[in-house]
Write a structure and sequence with these properties.
125 residues; mainly beta; Thrombin, subunit H; globular
């Protein structure tokens, strides 16, 4: 299955510099609805965890629905189920170390500090 099947159009999608106006983000955002597992960390210990769904992603951050607000400034670890298979066989996960920079009714915004793709096992049959 192609990743384009997961891309959701963003309302008021901005495409040119003239249209950007007050949006000062340096990275393009992609509307992707992917399963995410999150863990709030303090001193390398898990303080809280849960599941949610991404709203959009960019090279610098992620907006996701955690089902509730999370504390701003808190370190967070995300594990996102990636929709593309490695070599058409192995499931992938995007893992992210980041910090909560905003949390409100629109979702939880995380600034990515470190990220990597990992294999998540092989698909059956």
């Amino acid at each position: 299955m192609s990743i384009t099947n997961y891309i959701m159009p963003r309302r008021n999608s901005l495409t040119t510099v003239e249209e950007i106006g007050d949006d000062r983000r340096s990275s393009r955002r992609y509307g992707l609805a992917l399963e995410v597992r999150w863990q709030l960390l303090r001193r390398k210990r898990i303080q809280d965890s849960g599941k949610g769904c991404t709203v959009d992603l960019s090279s610098g951050g992620i907006l996701f629905d955690a089902g509730r607000t999370l504390p701003v400034g808190q370190k967070v670890f995300l594990s996102i189920s990636w929709p593309v298979l490695l070599h058409d066989a192995a499931r992938m996960q995007l893992t992210v170390d980041g910090r909560v920079v905003r949390s409100d009714s629109a979702g939880v915004a995380v600034q990515m500090m470190k990220h990597e793709f990992r294999t998540a096992g092989r698909m059956a049959g």
